[in-house]
């Protein structure tokens, strides 16, 4: 009888505690604190960048892009935040200087040493992310008033547009004979932003439309040769467009965010499908799986560890924050952010011990997300450069 | 057991009685209390040692100080999840049971007192 009573009490305590645990982890760091942290890191010592590079040199460039996008959003959100410009300039100038001095492979994993199939022999990952930083800066400078100087995105935009247009399956290579939908989506968004910034919204419209039409037809998983279709964008192909890796949360969530400014309807369809297949929710917490159950994948360095049983993945969950915020899915965003506060080990001031500088930049971008995409939509509707 | 100052533990001891079943229940409660306390103590110790900064492995970041940092981060993460999920459940469960036990004793005393006063 006593054992029965004790067991019942423990069950009731478990229900009560687990049902209310999320309430303790609702408040995250203010966006301004995150912006200050990013500015401090990029204007100060680079020990955290060295830690990133020791794990994966790609993360160095990605952390820069997310930091720039976050800072642009933060600066657009309220007037008088011009202090971001020198920080953005330093981040971008360094990336371009390092790519010029050491070659694009400075930002690639060692397996990127082979020959690209494309005649230009360049990585869309590197060119696309630099182009995105430059064009986001361009839009900010247009809003704040200032000079483009030597940071004109035009040559970068023309280079990536040419590379995508030349690719047999409209998917340009990030690594030799390896394309990533994530990188192509970033490049397409950069092209779109640049067209808007220059007041010629139709300049690359045909390429963007052709890419989305091709993606709907051939890059979305229709499971022609497998089991049930996921309907999700696959993550990686060879240069001919043959699948290398199926849908992967950490790639897909960012691709969705980027595609929002390329084709809003397609991005929303992908988001709904990804939400159904990748999101887990329980008692006020949410997490994202890296792979859909219909197409399980294997871990790689970008995915990071996955929690067994529930399939919660740090990389996918972090980038799901970006997509949820971008799509205005407030409920999911709140639950994902709650999980981050619980399992991300916040250190204060926008730093999470479970992550690294890249993870912090992603969270900063997610939390500051909105003003840049909003500006692009407004300018596209208006049609002119301000 | 009188030396133990915690009221819950004193109550557990009183409630245990002397039968083998009651002793087993007492041992179980003490084990549960230990289960609840150990992660909290371990978390406090690791926090003081600065192990919170070592959990970067959760995002796939390579530890800069090798296996020791990995072990420290793993210990901290496990202690945190145990201390924030398991410990409160066990403490709340034991507290709830203690409350029910006191309530049952109070109700029994009231019933006995009522019966005695009505028979008098």
Notes on the structure:
The complex is a heterodimer of chains A (386) and B (120). Chain A has 386 residues and is α+β, with helices and mostly antiparallel strands. Chain A has 15 helices and eight strands. Chain A is 58% helix and 6% strand. In chain A, helix 4 packs parallel to helix 14 (357-368), helix 6 packs antiparallel against helix 7 (154-166) and helix 6 (124-144) runs parallel beside helix 8. The longest helix of chain A has 21 residues, at 57-77. The relative contact order of chain A is 0.13. Chain B is mainly α and 120 residues long. In chain B, 78% of the residues lie in helices and 0% in strands. Chain B has helices at 7-16, 20-48, 66-119. Chain B starts with 6 loop residues before the first helix and ends with a helix. The chains are: A alpha+beta (386), B mainly alpha (120). The A-B interface holds A 2-3, 5-6, 9-14, 16-18, 21, 51-52, 54-55, 301-305, 314-315, 318, 342-343, 345, 347, 353-356, 359 and B 15, 21-22, 25, 28-29, 52-62, 64, 77, 80-81, 84-85, 88-97, 100.
Q: What would the average pLDDT of chain A be, to the nearest integer?
A: 92
- Which descriptor suits the 3D outline of chain A? globular
Helical proportion of chain B?
over 70%
- Strand fraction band of chain B? under 5%
Count of helical stretches of chain A: 15
Distance between the termini of chain B: 38 Å
Beta strand count of chain B: 0
The helix tally of chain B amounts to 3
Oligomeric state of shown chains: heterodimer
State mean pLDDT of chain B (0 to 100 scale): 85
Largest interface: A-B, 35 and 34 residues
Poorly predicted ranges of chain A (pLDDT <50, ≥5 residues)?
A: none
Task: Set down the secondary structure blueprint.
The complex is a heterodimer of chains A (386) and B (120).
Chain A lengths: L1 H19 L10 H13 L3 H9 L1 H21 L6 H19 L21 H21 L9 H13 L6 E3 L2 E3 H17 L7 H15 L16 E2 L5 E3 L3 H11 L4 H15 E4 L2 E4 L25 H13 L3 H14 L2 E3 L2 E2 L4 H12 L2 H12 L4
Helix pairs in contact in A: 2-4, 2-14, 3-4, 4-5, 4-6, 4-14, 5-6, 6-7, 6-8, 7-8, 8-10, 10-11, 10-12, 12-13, 12-14
Chain B lengths: L6 H10 L3 H29 L17 H54 L1
